[in-house]
């Protein structure tokens, strides 16, 4: 199944950039999506078969990844692979067919939406006469463009070097150093490839030291936050699920939120005050994706520690996506790698986003299915604001306990606490007494009630 797309300089890219005649032409790319007919193995622990995506969904995601760095997909194709070839992954006939397409379309880059071995990548580059990037390499390129902070840049560079290290497959014998050994039998000295590997390993070691410094700094910041006991709520989800839109809606922050894969890379934290006054730290994290490279997860562990240390995790799903179940499984798998059990309803809350994009029939059906579960998801629209009050109330209940009703009487000496009570509780009634005292009836979270009683006790003690 092939899809052509003519190169048009006036086309507006997915990021909204106008590619006019004077703008630099984006790199022309051919996107190949191999679909292996053999079913992937299920989870070894649960024996549950792994959900597979439709070919159309994989195709759209691959094109979205290419568009995320302003490539121009001049030809895209979904290819069924019954027998993966060790040398090229694809059969020789398909390779020859794509070589003609690359030449005809004047493509400079071929993207294969599947992990390639170093040998497969090298052989395809020879046969197609173009640079070849596999799924891992493309994701790394996107991350390299998205990183803005020093930490993000270091993490991307480390992942890139680890990826590159395994792809030094050529031995440039004409660049060998002077021969070693004694007499005439000494073999060649260090080859260029060995030299390159050593240089890469030195860079990797240096970057690991720098990231360790970043990790220690993060630990210090986290320790300071724990001294001021603000609960941490982390938003996780498949890329493009709407995490940054929700984050902006809840915090009023200006985090980049676009219809684009991996729009956000560096984590952002903001303090939010919930409806009954509970302050929390909200964390927006990098989006997850299927087949996320393991060394990339390892490189971003310092960032993802915000998820591990979070008091509450919001698993945001794009419920309007036909492959939402497979996406949720990918997120749960990565959370499990981080030591977070997605099935723990006390720690992880499933949030269904983009319900405004569903028609009435599908919406009612999905909500009915969700309500029948042990831990019903929260249905929201981060764009319209629907369901956000319910979500904020649930967050507050989870981090601070159920709402409780209480009555307090403040003496004239304690009236300075009235403003604090209004900000940290929901005052139902107020009575000003003749002796100058004030009686308030209010609802507050369990933790807020404990803080109120502690404050009044300290005031009385003084």
TrEMBL record:
It comes from the Bacteria. Residues 1-11, 40-57 have a biased composition (Basic and acidic residues). Its cofactor is Mg(2+). One of its GO terms (molecular function) is ribosome binding. The keyword Plastid does not apply. Residues 1-57 are annotated as: Disordered. InterPro entries: G_HFLX_dom, GTP-bd, GTP-bd_M, GTPase_HflX, GTPase_HflX_N, GTPase_HflX_N_sf, HflX_C, P-loop_NTPase. Mg(2+) binds at residues 244, 264. It is found in: Cytoplasm. Its main location: cytoplasm. Belongs to the TRAFAC class OBG-HflX-like GTPase superfamily. HflX GTPase family. Monomer. Associates with the 50S ribosomal subunit. This is GTPase HflX. It comes from Mesorhizobium hawassense.
